[in-house]
## 1
Amino acid sequence: MIGLDQIKDITRSTPSKIVLLVIDGLGGLPHPETGKTELETANTPNLDRLAKEGICGLVDTVSPGITPGSAPGHLALFGYDPLKFTVGRGVLEALGIDFELQEGDIAARGNFCTMDKNGIITDRRAGRISTSKCTELCQLLDGIKVDDVDLLVSPVREHRFVVVFRGEGLEDELSDSDPQRDGMPTKEVVPLATGAARAAHIVNKFIAQAKATLADHYPTNMVLLRGFAQYPNLPLMSEVFKLKPAAIAAYPMYRGLAKVVGMEVLATGSTIQEELETLAQHYDSYDFFFIHIKGTDSAGEDGDFDRKAGIIEEVDIALASLTSLNPDVIIVTADHSTPALLKGHSWHPVPFLLRSNWCRPDQVQEFSEKACSSGSLGRFLATNIMPLALANAQKLSKFGA
Amino acid sequence: MIGLDQIKDITRSTPSKIVLLVIDGLGGLPHPETGKTELETANTPNLDRLAKEGICGLVDTVSPGITPGSAPGHLALFGYDPLKFTVGRGVLEALGIDFELQEGDIAARGNFCTMDKNGIITDRRAGRISTSKCTELCQLLDGIKVDDVDLLVSPVREHRFVVVFRGEGLEDELSDSDPQRDGMPTKEVVPLATGAARAAHIVNKFIAQAKATLADHYPTNMVLLRGFAQYPNLPLMSEVFKLKPAAIAAYPMYRGLAKVVGMEVLATGSTIQEELETLAQHYDSYDFFFIHIKGTDSAGEDGDFDRKAGIIEEVDIALASLTSLNPDVIIVTADHSTPALLKGHSWHPVPFLLRSNWCRPDQVQEFSEKACSSGSLGRFLATNIMPLALANAQKLSKFGA
């Protein structure tokens, strides 16, 4: 597998355009009654045509058998080895709400949750409270100072918020306070490296103060923190791939992830049609577009097979406005599978198609997990996608003499 | 490829059960008259059904083009990169006869062989003498002391024995005395690292003494030693994969290999049916079972195409008692190919199937080299098997946020 240092030497800037359409959680499992996956169930004439004109395969975003979180799944799609480069959840959340992190800040993802009188978490999401309620609660906590550290608390969406610890000498090797399931007490945050002892102390003091502040706010009477992280230092897509990349994503975390690798995040409406309108508006200004569709993953997580299939059909209809722009390279794939049957991310490889004028079409006639398994790309790692995209956009010089 | 350190963080213990059935040397080459391999010739309705319900592929256990020895082949199947982790033959043989190695011991595999009056080896196996004859000869050599080093000589099976060198300051970087084919003299053992000079000296003195002791015992008048090795320090399957693993193998070396990665070796009869009875007896006590079938490899090594196909049919019939236990994950594959046409291990990839309730079946309809080549796993490295097994047994958490 070629490394970023090696590919950097052969990338070149050209006017050709690449569109990477990520249908989050697209891969599925067969419905017990029909034997067809969500994608195989949906009527997708546009995707089928792209598959027929293009090359297909099945992608392991991290490694075979591994269920990717959203961050490693996307980093891999962007060309960054997710086993080598990591981005903490807290940083992603902060970036996703346009929070301007400063060097040394530690960010964490927070949930408002419900705790019973014995200290047991009974609902990690406090009934998915409204974003306005979340904003109100954040105002109660924002600006708390623990010792000489400033606490900045900002709402994200529903029960979720970001807390940023700003002060001297903080290190981010910290365990989570979130037990990750209901019926357990919160965990004490412990330092996972000696340098993080001070940060752990500050975080635990903040949690105690938050608990006191929220005591009368049942069912949002406690906070759970996880994913403590400082801003990572990843090579930028503009440097490595010599692209001018833009991201179109309705959900904060995916915007945050795009920013980490140096994409410009475009303001957009949240429907699929609106996202594709955003693409059309900005089409002349960039040469790489990452478009993120969230609905498929949410439907999969909810176990709603039919809704997931329906959203895939919506994407297919909207595709017409994408293909009418005639990008040099169109890629359609996913960051991971989210089968409705499993109600969560899974390890199953994701279907992949790439269409360009120079792709040497294979024998695949439709876009489905089954059809992609006989594509000319075979089963391959996601870190190969960017080199394939750049090659098909004729943005790569020869390697070696 | 995810490393053991990384997968360790996401493995979790659950009650689900994994059975890894290794049909040693399963992969073959087409018979010149029929164009069908041993597996394609055998009638295998049970294997075909598992392939149809499961996912298939072709596995390179070490790397494409590389003919694996039994140790790297099995280490890879157990999830250990065989290019990184090595286990010397001598250690495997010693473990396989339940020899309790001490730290610093060097173990080697020995053959009793036949040497002519010119010092040429005429039969490396001395006509595959009986195990009782081997035991008798070992008694002649056991307990010899060379300088201050104790020599412990134990019979294995037929012409094979283990010799253990026990003393201070021995290092195991030693060449073999076994020329690996008939018609050659034995080789002097030379140190392959400066620290091993003393061990080489001791070993050569032992060989000279053994030759003198066996002079009147034609056709077992010489010894061949190979695979000098000290006990390796591999991470255990219980730690890395959080499994409680058990091994069912009739042959010593495979039991030894299982012990090296921390499997408990179950006492078993040696027929396929007896091995599967052992599985049923212990089914409740473990969550991972490695079952080793030796006959296919032996038949392949003997160049006996029909016998190999016959043993595959035996395995297929016996499979019913395995599937009736309804393991969460069944894997059937091999450590390497042993085509009867080549009378030895070969580099050809081995057919692979994995069946679970969550595997997203592909289009493969039968278990054969040809059919597996169009499976959704494509052609892949054996080190991916354990992650796939664990994922399908739902023993892996999400990787990253």
## 2
Amino acid sequence: MPHTDQMNVNLATRLGEVAVCFERALVNDLAPVNALACHVERYRGKMLRPTLVLTTGMAVREGMVSSTSIDQQLNSLAAVVEMIHMSTLVHDDVLDEADLRRGGATINILRGNETAVMLGDFLISSSFHLCSSVGEPWLNSALGEMTTQLCAGEILQLSHRGNLTLDEATYFDIVRRKTGVLAGACCGLAAKLAGASATVAESLRLYGEELGIAFQIQDDVLDLVGEEQIVGKTLGIDLRKGKFTLPIVVHLARCSLLERAETIAVIEACDAERLIRLVESTGALTAARERARQLVEHAKGRLAVLSESRARQMLVEIADAAIERTF
Amino acid sequence: MPHTDQMNVNLATRLGEVAVCFERALVNDLAPVNALACHVERYRGKMLRPTLVLTTGMAVREGMVSSTSIDQQLNSLAAVVEMIHMSTLVHDDVLDEADLRRGGATINILRGNETAVMLGDFLISSSFHLCSSVGEPWLNSALGEMTTQLCAGEILQLSHRGNLTLDEATYFDIVRRKTGVLAGACCGLAAKLAGASATVAESLRLYGEELGIAFQIQDDVLDLVGEEQIVGKTLGIDLRKGKFTLPIVVHLARCSLLERAETIAVIEACDAERLIRLVESTGALTAARERARQLVEHAKGRLAVLSESRARQMLVEIADAAIERTF
């Protein structure tokens, strides 16, 4: 389908522009700062968040006269959200004492925790500076609120570390703040920049938020039954850090006192194979997967506010892909 | 002097308003986040940065019709700079593995490094959010640029850790970015908000920057010859972290190869008393003090753009106090 190809070509071109915008925003007159910024660019993966911004923008502007200035604003927003995401990765690696990211050594390992903390701060600051160049004051306020929520979500999660009685409502509150809010902002703010009505922008924000939560649940499932776990090597890093994932939360809520004690012993013994069998026995793994599937269906339903277009179709595909991936 | 008293009363009232603004901006719907925010409020010391904002604002507005809306904007800016300063304190404590601040245990000790990193991020984000509520888009841009410089300064300092050949120019570049830029922003941005011309605002920014650098040099001097060092207990924390302070930088540049080797041995042995004698022998301690004094004189000279007022007099007193303090 040449039509499909053109969309992918456009998106790839725009993502290239976003990468340039990202790099330019981090250029500094100090060599040690530039060296770190170059290292961080290697962290860039599939650019999921910029893709959400650009695709939402395209879907909203379907049928409108094209505008270079709006395209540039959307490119800047895409670079801003990627920078915020990257600052959380750099600080997460410090927290998790991670030594590898995307096949390369992490900053904390290469240059020490101090530099990694400062680099994360540098990225947050640069993202706010870049954001203020868009020339839409409401965007600064919205992004400030969003990152505040993101940090609050992390703090909430840390306060529940190792809490065996974490309930589903709190789990979802954490995940919404930590993952949902950023993906929701990508779509909601892109829609507003692109000229969508408040109702349409809110629907797209909810699309992003539900997609983000589904994405996290899939991460949780893979943390338990991902390839590395299936071959019995390691228990998921989340579990080892005392972060309870949805399958475990649902399982602990469903099981008897005896099964509960057994589960805790198995977690402490880091026995992934037995843990998977236990979590499957109460149907908790299936329930978690089902919950992610429902969220994706909800998210896709939110797209009904948009007219039919290739960009809208791509948003559907992104939602489906969130729970179909195995890595 | 009742006139003097009135200025102090006004300032104290305004600082009280700033504290309320600060607290309100950190209120969150999550209990664990509020608990941390309350802890951070205990870090609040003399509120030097808010005092610079408010006093500069008062000095600029001397003789003008009073404006509640401008006063509120200045209060918000004062809370914003205090929040940025506090976020740097929280992250510095993680970097320095500090266990005490203002007589209480640090967040990193009480709640772990993870929570401290996240709390710092929460404070940065909240400061940007609060800043966007002032309703002056240029302020978002200026603060984004300022915090980016601040982080760049920290990264530059980390890249020179333990560098025995650190030259004076690089030392001043680090200190300007780390300390000067924030104090400069307090005065320059407050002046602009208060309605000063670009020339007056720039003079006041330079006043703040020079004051900030002098303040840091005095810290450096106290790190070496402060009361705790004089009684021979500990060598300054900066030196132990491989951060070279101005007296040491000047001393190493002045001394012979033999004295240099001796100095390094004395630093490694953490012998504060001998180090002080060595640094005094080359006149480096006197030179550092003299440099701080010159900066304070320069800073005071910048105030000539302001008409005579009690607020201007207070800015003179703040500058003098920066190098007269012994703690």
